[in-house]
Amino acid sequence: MSDSLFRLHKLTLPGSDVPRLNSVTLQIPCGVTAIVGLSGAGKTSLLNVLAGFETGFSGELTSGVATGAAHRLPLFWVPQSGGLWPHLSAAQHLEVVSGDAARNQKSGNETERFSKRTDEILSLFDLTHRRQALPGELSQGERSRLGIARALATRATVLLLDEPLSHVDPVRKPVYWNIMRRIVAEENISMVFVSHEPETVLRHAEHVICLHDGAVVFDGPVRTLYDHPPDAQVGEFLGPLNWFGAEEAAVFLNGDATASDVVVRPERMQIRTAKDSAIQLLSTPFVGAYQESTVRHVESGMTKSVLHQVPDVILPIGQRVAFRVHLRPGGAP
């Protein structure tokens, strides 16, 4: 496998009114890449193009995925619907794809090994008791888990996943994602997946592609997008943030006027009482892992909602407060 799974150059996929993908140029590296964006941004269209399902595009698409390596499928695609075969049981879904690999190996021992692998994967995704059930007899969550279990059973070099585990209970979803990441690491599998979940992208992706109206608005490491987003909307694909314009930063961060905007994630923003501050607390609802306080600069009347760490004590409304940005080593917020 080359350094890049796919290379796209000025790829445009037409739509009914406007292009679904508009002059997309990027390289998708090996490893785990997430595709994010608002509904209708072109995420599924991009994945479908990579899978070969959509072919009516202009521009260039080059695959760097090795074919025939160790008798592995080069690619396996799991669409939003799951793409399950209605006439096969849960176990047969895995046996079919594993059996093909075993026949390619032409070894009875390999066939037995793949049979054991079917049992193991069904167990990992809590489907052992549903091994004889057809897709129509499974819940949406079970079908979602089966689609991923089948994809992993293929041992394909690259997996393309459109909102994987989207119907799985939130409490169990992190468990299954950890299983997926362990298996793809052990099998040296690359993944490209679509997601609307910031936490999933942060935990499991190394690279991220952000789409808006069919165009790429960010393409790079997840950490870069988290720490240095190009704008507030793109940055929020990886979760809540505070975006201070230059004037706002000077007023609410108690500093001199800056030449550029300042972005601070909630976990790096602290609030404290400050009797000599010109900032007054107007409201401060608790929203779980962080708190959102609306404040007013008394002299200018400027107001702003700020996301910050939950303070040790409840601050009374009307209190004068100040914000402190917790800097990383090197001075970055």
Brief account:
The protein has 333 residues and is α/β, with parallel strands linked by helices. Helix content is 29%, strand content 28%.
Q: Spans with pLDDT under 50 lasting ≥5 residues? A: none
Helix-strand category: alpha/beta
Q: In percent, how much strand structure appears in the residues?
A: 25-35%
Q: How many strands?
A: 16
CATH superfamily of the largest domain: P-loop containing nucleotide triphosphate hydrolases
What is the 3D form? globular
CATH architecture assignment of the largest domain: 3-Layer(aba) Sandwich
User: Radius of gyration from the CA trace?
Assistant: 24 Å
Instruction: Describe the sheet with the most strands.
Output: 6 strands, mixed
CATH topology of the largest domain: Rossmann fold
In percent, how helical is the residue content? 25-40%
Q: Please write the CATH class name of the largest domain.
A: Alpha Beta
What is the terminal-to-terminal distance? 37 Å
Number of domains: 2
Strand order of the largest sheet: 5-6-7-3-8-9
Q: Can you offer a commentary on this structure?
A:
The protein is globular. It has helices at 43-51, 90-105, 108-124, 140-154, 173-186, 198-204, 222-227, 232-235, 246-252, and strands at residues 4-13, 21-29, 32-37, 58-63, 75-78, 158-162, 190-194, 207-212, 215-221, 242-244, 262-264, 269-273, 279-283, 291-297, 303-308, 320-325. The protein folds into 2 domains: 4-237, P-loop containing nucleotide triphosphate hydrolases (Rossmann fold, 3-Layer(aba) Sandwich); 241-325, OB fold (Dihydrolipoamide Acetyltransferase, E2P). It is built from 9 helices and 16 strands. By secondary structure, it is α/β, with parallel strands linked by helices.
